[in-house]
Design a protein that fits this description.
This protein has about 350 residues and is mostly helical. About 65% of the residues lie in helices and about 0% in strands. The protein has eleven helices and no strands. The longest helix has about 45 residues. The termini are far apart.
């Protein structure tokens, strides 16, 4: 992942080495550190999600290209990425803003002043300013006006990095940050999307989603990253179905062994599709849990709420958030392994070559 991965890794390490705290309330400090580490890890998971989608698309394109050439066709040979560089950059800017926010909280909570020359502040602010609703295709579930408003609301993050004496205004930053966290989670949740319509209005218009409500109130139409990955996998499955049908219709070519190998790849592709979708579902669940974990911090800072102080972090929404992130990371790794295995499997050409073009007896 290059410089971006290094940034997240350094941030993760930085968050982990702060040992002492000038904040009187130990629970608040633990909640902030928990939220910070979980958010950084989730940002890395989301990046991996998009990278896996591109790899799945590349695999499907390669398999189909080879099949078309085997049929004697003249297919398009240029692989087109699922997302443009600017579209991906916009998502990375959003994740960088989240990471910058939690780093700020962590510094303040541990009694460290936020340097005026905080290295990532300038780039984060510039990234937020350059966000454009056209870089996020949410038209499957939001109107253009709603998308514009959602992007605009996320600009709250900019204020959190330039507040005067921000190391003395933890409560003010967290209160404002709560709205930004909710909007960011909602944007990314819709961006990941759905594979099936959840509303009866999807056939002719987008649902009437209210971005001021909770994520649980959303009704999405098919679209977003989940639908894109689903389409790529289905394309690859159709390619292997086509190869199996072609092999079956060819006289004296291939046999039981060859058919079995192709069937294995066909089944593996379908299992990969299920695993990739589960990866994205777990990422969405972690985004929902992230909002809840930040809510724990808000509640702890609320003097009228005495319950939060008695709740251990591991049994709270903060603990659930970390559990969701750990689950998402594990499934991402499983998906990466499955995709790598399937991509390295023998091609139909090599299968036929090794069989000598003869029927198995």
């Amino acid at each position: 992942m290059g410089p971006t991965r290094n940034f997240f890794l350094l941030l993760w390490l930085q968050l982990g080495v702060y040992g002492c705290s000038s904040v009187d309330d130990t629970l608040l400090n633990r909640q902030i550190q928990s939220f910070s580490s979980g958010t950084v890890a989730l940002a890395a998971v989301i990046q991996n999600d998009f990278e896996l989608a591109e790899k799945a698309n590349s695999m499907a394109f390669t398999d189909n290209l080879q099949f078309q050439l085997e049929l004697g066709g003249n297919p398009e040979t240029t692989l087109k990425p699922l997302f443009s560089r600017t579209d991906i950059a916009a998502r990375w800017d959003l994740l960088a803003a989240m990471s910058g926010y939690v780093e700020t909280l962590s510094l303040i909570a541990t009694g460290k002043a936020v340097p005026s020359t905080f290295a990532s502040v300038s780039s984060v602010i510039n990234g937020l300013k350059s966000l454009d609703y056209r870089q996020f295709d949410l038209t499957h579930s939001l109107s253009i006006l709603d998308t514009q408003a959602l992007i605009s609301d996320i600009s709250i993050f900019q204020e959190l990095f330039i507040l005067p004496a921000r190391d003395k205004k933890l409560a003010a930053i967290i209160q404002a940050g709560d709205a930004a966290v909710k909007k960011t989670a909602m944007l990314l949740y819709i961006d990941i999307g759905e594979v099936q319509d959840q509303s009866g209005t999807c056939s002719y218009s987008v649902p009437a989603n209210d971005t001021d409500q909770s994520i649980s109130s959303l009704r999405l139409c098919r679209g977003g990253l989940r639908a894109i990955v689903d389409t790529a996998i289905k394309s690859d499955v159709d390619t292997w179905k086509g190869k199996l049908a072609l092999l079956k219709n060819q006289n004296g070519v291939g046999g039981t062994g060859v058919s079995s190998t192709i069937i294995q790849k066909l089944v593996a592709a379908q299992k990969l599709g299920q695993l990739l979708d589960q990866t994205l579902i777990e990422t969405q669940a972690a985004l929902v849990a992230m909002v809840g974990a930040h809510g724990d911090i808000v509640d702890t800072l609320n003097p009228e709420n005495g319950v939060a102080f008695a709740t251990p972090v591991l049994n709270s929404r903060s603990g659930i958030f970390l559990q969701k992130v750990i689950m998402a990371k594990a499934i991402v790794q499983s998906a990466e392994d499955a995709l790598a295995t399937l991509s390295q499997a023998p091609t139909i050409t090599s299968i036929l070559s090794n069989s000598g073009g003869q029927n198995d007896k």
